Amino acid sequence: MAMKRQAYKSTSCSNFLCIRYSTILSLILVFTSFFLFLAQLRHVREPLLWAGQARFHGDLRDAKFPWNKLCFGPTFKKLKLAVFSKTWPVGAAPGGMERHASTLYHALAARGHEIHVFTVPSNRRPQHDIHEGNLHVYFAANDHGSVNCSLAFEIFNKINASGAFDYVHTESVSLPYWRAKFLPNLAVTWHGIWYEIMHSKLFQELLVNPNEALPGPMTELQEAIPRLIDEIRFFSSYRQHICISTSAGEVLVNIYQLPQRNIHVILNGVDDAKFVQEPEAGAALRRKHGVPVNASLVMGVAGRLVRDKGHPLLYEAFSSIIKRHPGVFLLVAGSGPWRRRYAELGSNVMVLGALEPSELSKFYNALDVFVNPTLRPQGLDLTLIEAMHCGKPVLAPNYPSIVGTVVVNEGLGYTFSPNVKSFVDVLELVIRDGPEVLKRKGMACKEYALSMFTANKMASAYERFFLCMKDTRYCQYPLLTDC
């Protein structure tokens, strides 16, 4: 009897423990599944969350993402900055570098900072210096129309003697490294590095000789590695490095072996008051240039019509497309050797010539999709972000600088490998998607561009960078004045 009672008691305890353990186990499984679900949801959603402030607290010099993602508040401290720039926009159709420089330094001057730019005019003609409020532009050209560093430094030293510059900034190698290494308070912004240029030369060779088993002399490619090694060696002559794409920043750390704390990513921005969505202006431009009202799709490309901008690639791909899709049209804004070749494609291609900056917004608005076929995987092409501000999706090669910074997901546009077959396949996809899908993607592009690629975002980030370099208190984020 005792044994029966004991057996019954043991069984009861065992059942009780089993029930309790199973309950605990079930709860653990439920909570584990819940947290795994949340983690998976976060993993899925994060790539789509481009807008808004990045979750960052700490020293800005440790940031491994673009400073444009942060929201910096107002500052009451004013800086005196010296800038060396390759060119300054003067006359018609300036390039991207000139437009970037003008946008950035006008914006910084408007914020109350004293800006002195040492440069040459983009049209290579004699030009009077410019003095507009806080912005001062000094033209110091040599006989070839490039910056005369000796003359520029004479002016620099004279202005510096009347009140020292807080910081010196050079756009790429406008200030050569053998002079830069003697300036302790110096930063350089790289709009292209030789590691990326080397890739550009590789893609161009493959495009020109796609089926050659043993191509002929490849002088540029053969010279690329020695030039890359030379560049890696002299980059340390510059104190602080600003990259305009996340991928370039990673290369400077991983390949060029520069200290992580000396590498900062600040993306280019454009004036979002000039590049805006205006469907009526786009429709007017279509009428002006005779685009049929029943066109099934209108694509566009802008920039210099030269080989390294990818025009051989676009020419071949579009030649194939119009044979199957006669309702598709291509608008070409720009001038250069490939203008005549495009004329060979007939009435489906309209070459508009070089457009004034004020006309570019209308051009983008006339498109269903903006195409950038560039063979130069370097920097951050302003035409892409200008088109996005105008509410247009973009189509570009899948270079790290583009997929990591601009077309960060499929909702913003399309990417392709830099060869004709891949390009044609993606163009077919664009045509299948049609204007309505392209319009939705264009709205997503506009939202993303406003969150990352505005002149205000860019100038705010540069302002905070220079303040941080002068006074480490400004390196902390967020400050009480930050958003």
TrEMBL record:
Q: Which SUPFAM superfamilies match?
A: UDP-Glycosyltransferase/glycogen phosphorylase
Q: Which residues form the Glycosyl transferase family domain?
A: 297-436
- Keywords from the UniProt entry: Glycosyltransferase, Membrane, Transferase, Transmembrane, Transmembrane helix
**Record-annotated Glycosyltransferase subfamily 4-like N-terminal domain positions:** 94-273
Q: Which residues cross the membrane?
A: 21-39
List the molecular function annotations (GO) for this entry: glycosyltransferase activity
- InterPro entries, per this entry? Glyco_trans_1, Glyco_trans_4-like_N
Q: Does the keyword Transferase apply?
A: yes
| Protein name, as recorded | Uncharacterized protein
